[in-house]
Structure formats: C-alpha cells, structure tokens
C-alpha cells in the first residue's frame, strides 16, 4: 500500500514538473519525486541506496540545480518561466514510449522467470541491512569500478571548477 | 508485503517517459537537466527492483550506486557549462544559443 502512495506521489509531482512553466516550482516538484523514489528504495530492501539517494540527489544535485536556476535566470522579469516547444511531438513520443514499454512489460510475463522466484525473506538472510554486504563487495569484486568512479569524480570536480571560472577577470 | 515487479517496472516506464517529455519540450537548459535526472532515476529503479531477487550478490544495487555517482558528476559539469553559456549569451534558452545568424 505504501508503495502505491509513493508511486502516485512520484508520478504526480513528475508530471507537475513537466506541466508547470515556473522553474522553481519544477525544481521543488523534482524534490518530491526524488524523495518518493528514495521511499520506494526502502520498500525494495535497498536501504543504503535510499540513503545515498537522499544525500547525493536531494542534498547535492537538487541544491546544485536550484543554484543553477537562480544563477541563470533574471528573477525580476519573466525569464524564470521556461518556454515550451514541440509539445505535440513531445507528448506523442512520450506517449508512444510509455505505451510500448507498458505493453512489453505486461506481455513479457516477467514474474514467472525462474531466477525471480526467490522470496524477499531470504534475500537479506539473517542480516537486516545491506550496508555490510555492499561494503564487502565494493572492496572485493567491484574495487576497479569503485576506483574509476573516484577518479571520475575528481576529474569532474576539477573540470567543473575550471569551466565555471571567469577567465577574463583572473 | 510483496510488491509485484511489474508494478515497479510500470512506474519506472512512466518516470522515464516524463523525463523524455521534459527533455523534448522544455527549452531552459536546467529543466532539460532535471529531465535527464528523472531518466537516471527510472533506470535506477529497475536495477534496484531486480536486485531484490539477487540473493547475496546485490549486483543491481551496486550498479545503481555507480549510476548515482556518474549522475552527480554529470550534473556538476553540465551546470558549470550552463553557467558559462549564460554568462556568454545572457540566456539559458537552448533555442537562442547560437552563434550563426538566423
């Protein structure tokens, strides 16, 4: 039941993000969408992913986006409103995507796949949290992607700082 | 409580199409970025949903962790580019950012 509340909240606020023309309203409805997706992660036995979603998306990316909105629009005049183009074609493409995906999901009969037959009870086993397992995996099987991700973050940090510097004044 | 996996996949499909709609119809660069973040979230939802059935390995959850990391790096660089473009063209409207004569 809780899942459907979170799903409805995510869809409604996501749709409001598209429908509204005010950039700040769009940012705050994206906040509600991200929060409800984090709630769904908790219901799917992914507690560490849910906390990461809260810290990285809600605490980091969304604040960055709000800064971007405030720095890239003059709040005094109408430019805080975004204009819509291609509404007919956009709605057509999005509608086709959602209809096609829903048709294939409902036709594919996914829940009868043999490797999906395990119940959630023995997924977590006797431990109640995935944090320990994720930590072990990150330091053993996934240590190469982990290190590459750290390198990518360093490169992105330096690149963003370099791009955003005003070189005419320095 | 057992959540059927089809419902999670349907929610993810709807979120994905909302993200695509935002990318296509919006002309402000930051809102296009918000649509891309929504698409990332839809993909993550699928990964986590299937990882629920992966008893000890948790491969889906680890993959979605890396997706979150890449999304954060992408957002930082993209917003820096948007700010530079705004300083140069005095607008963040994607249709007006052009150096050629119209």
Automatic annotation (TrEMBL), chain A:
GO terms of molecular function: NADH dehydrogenase (ubiquinone) activity; quinone binding
One protein family per Pfam: Oxidored_q3
Cellular localization per UniProt: Cell membrane
Domain of life: Bacteria
Regions crossing the membrane: 24-44, 56-75, 87-106, 142-164
E.C. no: 7.1.1.-
Keywords, ordered alphabetically: Cell membrane, Membrane, NAD, Quinone, Transmembrane, Transmembrane helix, Ubiquinone
Membrane topology: Multi-pass membrane protein
Any one Gene Ontology cellular component term annotated for this protein: plasma membrane
Catalysed conversion reaction: a quinone + NADH + 5 H(+)(in) = a quinol + NAD(+) + 4 H(+)(out)
InterPro entries xrefs: NADH_UbQ/plastoQ_OxRdtase_su6, Nuo/plastoQ_OxRdtase_6_NuoJ
Chief site of localization: membrane
Function summary: NDH-1 shuttles electrons from NADH, via FMN and iron-sulfur (Fe-S) centers, to quinones in the respiratory chain. Couples the redox reaction to proton translocation (for every two electrons transferred, four hydrogen ions are translocated across the cytoplasmic membrane), and thus conserves the redox energy in a proton gradient.
Similarity-based family: Belongs to the complex I subunit 6 family.
Protein name per the record: NADH-quinone oxidoreductase subunit J
Species whose genome carries this gene: Pontibacter burrus
UniProtKB/TrEMBL annotation, chain B:
One GO CC annotation: NADH dehydrogenase complex
GO molecular function: NADH dehydrogenase (quinone) (non-electrogenic) activity; quinone binding
InterPro entries, per database record: NADH_UbQ_OxRdtase_chain4L/K, NUOK/Mnh_C1-like
Membrane topology classification: Multi-pass membrane protein
Top-level taxon of origin: Bacteria
EC number annotated for this UniProt entry: 7.1.1.-
EC class: translocase
Pfam families reported in the protein's UniProt record: Oxidored_q2
Record keywords: Cell membrane, Membrane, NAD, Oxidoreductase, Quinone, Translocase, Transmembrane, Transmembrane helix, Transport
Segments passing through the bilayer: 7-24, 30-50, 62-86
Cell compartments where the protein resides: Cell membrane; Membrane
GO biological process: ATP synthesis coupled electron transport
Catalyzed reactions: a quinone + NADH + 5 H(+)(in) = a quinol + NAD(+) + 4 H(+)(out)
Family: Belongs to the complex I subunit 4L family.
NCBIfam families per record: PRK05715.1-2 (NF004320)
Primary role: NDH-1 shuttles electrons from NADH, via FMN and iron-sulfur (Fe-S) centers, to quinones in the respiratory chain. The immediate electron acceptor for the enzyme in this species is believed to be a menaquinone. Couples the redox reaction to proton translocation (for every two electrons transferred, four hydrogen ions are translocated across the cytoplasmic membrane), and thus conserves the redox energy in a proton gradient.
The protein's name: NADH-quinone oxidoreductase subunit K
Organism, scientific name: Pontibacter burrus
């Amino acid at each position: 039941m809780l899942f459907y509340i979170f799903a409805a909240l995510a869809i409604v606020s996501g749709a409001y993000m598209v429908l509204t023309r005010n950039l700040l309203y769009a940012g705050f409805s994206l906040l509600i969408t991200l929060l409800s997706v984090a709630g769904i992660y908790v219901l799917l036995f992914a507690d560490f992913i849910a906390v990461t979603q809260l810290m990285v998306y809600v605490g980091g990316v969304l604040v960055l986006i709000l800064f971007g909105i405030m720095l890239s629009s003059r709040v005094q005049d109408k430019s805080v409103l975004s204009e819509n183009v291609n509404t007919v074609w956009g709605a057509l493409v999005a509608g086709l995507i959602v209809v096609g995906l829903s048709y294939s999901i409902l036709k594919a009969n996914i829940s009868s796949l043999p490797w999906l037959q395990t119940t959630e009870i023995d997924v977590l086993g006797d431990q109640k949290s995935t944090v320990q397992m994720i930590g072990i995996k990150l330091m053993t099987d996934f240590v190469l992607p982990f290190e590459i991700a750290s390198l990518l973050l360093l490169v992105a940090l330096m690149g963003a700082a370099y791009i955003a510097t005003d070189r005419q004044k320095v | 409580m057992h959540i059927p996996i089809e419902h999670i996949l349907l929610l993810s499909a709807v979120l994905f199409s909302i993200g695509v709609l935002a990318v296509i119809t919006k002309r402000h660069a930051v809102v296009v970025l918000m649509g891309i973040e929504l698409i990332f979230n839809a993909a993550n939802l699928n990964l986590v949903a299937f990882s629920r059935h992966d008893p000890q390995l948790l491969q889906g959850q680890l993959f979605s962790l890396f997706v979150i990391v890449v999304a954060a790096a992408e957002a930082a660089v993209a917003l820096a580019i948007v700010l530079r473009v705004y300083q140069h063209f005095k607008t963040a409207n994607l249709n007006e950012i052009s150096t050629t004569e119209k």
